[in-house]
Amino acid sequence: xxxxxxxxxxxxxxxxLHHLLHExxxxxxxxxxxxxxxxxxxxxxxxxxxxxxxxxxPPSNAATPSEVDVLDVDATGRVERLLTKxxxxxxxxPDVPIQTDECAQVVDMLLRYHVMERLVHPDLLVQISFEAxxxxxxxxxxxxxxxxxxxxxxxxxxxFLGRLCQGYACSATxxxxxxxSMLRDCLDTFDDAISLFLSKMPSEFDTxxxxxxxxxxxxxxxDALTNISCLLTHHTPELDAECDRLFASYQRLLTSSNYAxxxxxxxx
Length: 268
Description:
With about 270 residues, this protein is an all-alpha fold. It has helices spanning about 5, 10-25, 75-90, 100-110, 115-120, 120-125, 130-145, 150-155, 160-165, 175-190, 190-200, 200-215, 220-230, 235-240, 245-255, 260-265.
């Protein structure tokens, strides 16, 4: 089916991906299956569904759905094709600039039907191609930087940030780096995400420190260190409040036997 058709029916495009992911990827704890109840988005974009603020977040150890079904070849191919088309609409291409109205509608639909929460699950990312993984990363980056007001309620949640941190446990290097990059986009853009991470996600911070100290792959340990730098070089009230706990953990980096890790930690 041509991209031209999908560009004239972006609502159907995003709903198709939602239905497909709904069968295989878990939602976040507070997600509601409102596909059949929501009206179709209009081309000028509409307000995304309300999400809880950081003050309403459950603790980071709250139970979350964690299993993703194994995709068959047909489902994998459909996800990858849909991602390619959505990336073209949201991010544009060198030859085809972004069409503002169509992009706004796609963004609205991706948020309305909780597609982004499912797409960033590491167990789903590991089953799709590297190009499709990069498409997910590019879509998140574009939405964070060009549609911050719309995506902020989604990404500034313990459950969403925690799902990105789960990527560091993945055995596939490319998935770890894509998840790390998406986490960095959120931290670089939203002070709320940093505040939430520092105050309510102690185990995830320790995970970043552990990866930076012990991971054998230099690119992955450097990625974790870069995200630690994002967290500790933005001044927030939570950084002051949690200083003792954070730097007790950070001490591991300063005393690391790995020279590159120790040097990077000293630079931070």
